[in-house]
Amino acid sequence: MLRDLSLVxxxxxxxxxxxxxxxxxxxxxxxxxxxxxxISKKSTIDSYDFLENNKFIDAxxxxxxxxxxxxxxxxxxxxxxxxxxFETGTKAAAAGGVTTVIDMPLNSIPPxxxxxxxxxxxxxxxxxxxxxxGFYGGIIPGNQNDLIPLINAGVKGFKGFLINSGVDEFxxxxxxxxxxxxxxxxxxxxxxxxxxxxxSLETLDKTSYNSFLKSRPQSLELNAISLVTRLAKEYSxxxxxxxxxxxxxxxxxxxxxxxxxxxxxxxxxxxxxxxxAEEVPLGRTDFKCCPPVREKINQExxxxxxxxxxxxxxxxxxxxxxxxxxxxxxxxxxxxxIKAWGGISxxxxxxxxxxxEAKKRGCSFHNLYTWLSKNTAKQVGLQxxxxxxxxxxxxxxxxxxxxxxxxxTKDIIQFKNKVTPYMGRTLYGVVKKTIVRGNIVYDAERDxxxxxxxxxxxx
Length: 459
Ligand SMILES: [Zn+2]
Description:
By secondary structure, the protein is of the alpha/beta class. The chain has two domains: 94 residues, Urease, subunit C, domain 1 (Roll), CATH 2.30.40.10; 312 residues, Metal-dependent hydrolases (TIM Barrel). It has eleven helices and 18 strands. Strands 1, 2, 3, 4, 5, 15, 16, 17 and 18 form a nine-stranded mixed β-sheet that branches. It has a six-stranded parallel β-sheet with strand order 9-10-11-12-13-14. The site of zinc ion has 5 residues, from loops.
């Protein structure tokens, strides 16, 4: 029986859903990449002398925890491969301890709004993914008949916009389109008051981050979340999810909705928790995304909501583009923040970005695991096979050193466009190894991203 093992991971700090603190343990992985045994003590290679040397990993004092499941990523292939692609995006994921990504339906051309379009995406992704990948479908006006076939084809949910998405091929929906479907919302929506507000913005300084912030006030998110929570209550057999919550003013509404038993989940992003509007330097369009990074005081309230469970998960919303679309080919004081593409690139850096901030706040490794893996697995229906280290689960594991620091430089970034607001920052948390279904896909000691693309489609 022992002879069938493909990999063994042992260490003194292994975190599972069963313990609040990491504990000594040994994980045995079978030839199918599943966890076949979990032993509550550290082992030595002597017990596994039939294994090749590099098939026995002693993680020492590094943290060993379930791989990160980033449930909000834009890989933009096919169609916008100068922005990102399956290969570069999933290599970045592997380097960041992310073992599963869920790709968004928009910014690829075509968007994932029909089964035919979905097939084009799967074809484009074939043989290029270093980590496992699932897909969301999109809802746009008039594609209601495509939703059931898309579910049958394996999408994990649908994303719809209540405001201009930023790309022409993915128009926003209205309340009628929203009924009878399974949904995730980009929760910003304009009202007639906001239209007037937008007109007065034309006179503002377009190079200032503040002008952009004023153009996307919290009220847009409140309008949308009020509609979404109302619909979620009305159609309570459908699970509803709010993507990238930024507005803390909406927290009470969400809390009330959840306490009424509405099946609602909410995510926020690394940038809303770890960046603030006050710190955006002049011309730094790499800090721009929609909804926007808001003030420090807003960030504090998001942290409270995350810690009390009102916010379920933290994702990257990795939404890259070229440096030109960010206006970065211009001088700092000539960059138009209003016009620049709204999206932040974080995929490889989520764990250290969040840990650096969470550490200061006294958060535990179990907190990180809950926000980054456990709750995102559940959100996309993967909790029976991913998001935990336990017998029968896929051996998706990240091994990292929380005490070690590194500096974000262009050299280490695996995603296509080396544009990120975290450039130059010193972060706590160095990923040592990433394991996807028993395959080592990232090894800091062996040239970083290694092996061949082992990612499978979660459809
Ligand atoms: Zn997004």
